[in-house]
Known about the structure:
This protein is an alpha/beta fold. The protein is 30% helix and 20% strand.
Amino acid sequence: MIRIQITDGSGRVEVAAEVDFIQVREPGLSVRALADCVRGLVQQGGPRVLVNDRADVAIACGAAGVHLRDHSLSPEVIRPIAPKGFLITVACHSAEAVHRAAAEGADYVVLAPVFAPLSKPLDRPPLGLEALRSIAADAKIPVIALGGITEENTPFCVAAGAAGVAGITLFR
């Protein structure tokens, strides 16, 4: 099971021990501060680093990949300039978005919200486990569950077909 820790935007990045990836989501940082943060995490040699929406920073700092937000650049734009093995994850909120991300060359999709988010206000209705099950079964690439993920509901997400889970509060 894949476990992705997403940073909370506070500028303080503390990596949990049990994660495969750390997704650096720090919109308040300048590009220079973001690059310093990413470079430091990469040099620590812990979990693989994904950078939220900044493929340029991810590539320049030697990160494992980039996470593209909804309505961001297409993976097709990034793939030709990315190094071999560079991972591209895409935020998706529907089956249609998952199909599009796969067709455009994403490696993983992060489907949200499965449950009501714990770290921010609810801005769209939760999809629920049945939608996760249906979308994951039909997806051509691995689906990561996000939104309201806890240690208690993680096994249900995996049983529904998620390749893993992502979260902010899950790893605090």
